[in-house]
Amino acid sequence: MTPLEALQAQLADEHLALHLYGVLGARTSASASPALHQALSAGYRQHRARRDVLRGFVTDAGGVPVTAEAAYDVPATWVGPRRIALAAVELENAGMERLSALVASTAGATREWAVTELVWSAVQSVALGASPTTWPGAPELV
Amino acid sequence: MAAAFATPVALAACDIDPPRDETPEQGESDAPLPQDDDTGLVATVLDRIEETRGVVATVASAPVVVALASRLRALHSAQTDLLGEALPDQEPKAGAPGGETTPVPEPGPPRRTLLAAERRLQRELVRAAGQASSGDLARVLASAAAAVAQELAADVPGAVAP
């Protein structure tokens, strides 16, 4: 996988993450589940910023940024605070694996950015109720 | 949806091109073997982890940090084991048999001392990940930094209840 391919894959992932965070946030009550709503709002903002940064990285690498899909399938069973938090954790876990691959396939400023984002997602997963792991983003190392 | 979550696994397993030359043969090893340029970097990181383990050992008995310190000791042990594999010829340090470390005295309340040491380690791991010549090693170091960050985050109240 070339660095550009890794960037494009990450960007496609961010399009999905942004959509899912929006749906999950819309299904969460800010008054009934304030901590979850706050975590989802933070996630939405972070992934939106990531998408924008990645578009720049792809362009700088000579590529045309991939666009979002017309629609994403969001399971109807993702309702209720516990299931929504779990879905967001799964989203961040998948994102961490993608980011760790991006760390491995890039260098310089792009890698430094990916490391920072990996750390952010690791903390975000804990904020969403996940337990810490020994190798976030690299589960095969356990 | 399921496919969206499944793709990172395939990505992680694919042949990732390190950003610089000296690419090892695919399938040669799963360990984050450092390229020659990275040997000193790994040694520096291991030294930093040992220093941090020393701080953890110093404050570990304080009730306010006993649980966190226990988790961090296990984490640092795993990190040392994996990174140590990257330096197979390295002799164990004198005075540190069985992973025990020499406590590094630091003034201040135990919790503050512990958090400061762990944050220093996290910064060092992030810096090292950015500098590694090997992409695979960078990935390991980035994950190690993320793990430290997770432990510190888990020690702060306010997370969504599982």
What does this entry look like structurally?
- The complex is a heterodimer of chains A (142) and B (162).
- Chain A has 142 residues and is mainly α.
- Helices cover 68% and strands 0% of the residues of chain A.
- Chain A has helices at residues 3-26, 34-60, 81-105, 108-127.
- In chain A, α2 (34-60) packs antiparallel against α4.
- In chain B, α3 (66-85) packs antiparallel against α5.
- Chain B is built from 5 helices and no strands.
- Chain B has helices spanning 2-13, 39-59, 66-85, 110-131, 135-154.
- Helices cover 59% and strands 0% of the residues of chain B.
- Chain B has a domain at 1-10 and 58-89 and 105-157.
- At the A-B interface, α1, α2, α3 and α4 of A face α1, α3, α4 and α5 of B.
Main features:
heterodimer; A: 142 residues; mainly alpha; B: 162 residues; 5 helices; 0% strand; disordered N terminus
Number of strands of chain B: 0
- What is the number of E strands of chain A? 0
Overall average pLDDT of chain A: 96
Give the uncertain stretches of chain A in residue-range form: none
Protein chains sharing the most extensive interface: A-B, 59 and 46 residues
Number of helices of chain A: 4
- Rough outline of chain B: globular
Straight-line distance between termini of chain A:
24 Å
Secondary-structure content class of chain A: mainly alpha
Q: What global shape of chain A is seen?
A: globular
Number of helices of chain B: 5
The average pLDDT value of chain B, as a whole number, equals: 77
As an assembly, this protein is heterodimer
* Beta-strand residue fraction of chain A: under 5%
The biggest sheet of chain A amounts to: none
N-to-C series of helices and strands of chain B: HHHHH
The gyration radius over C-alpha positions of chain A equals 15 Å
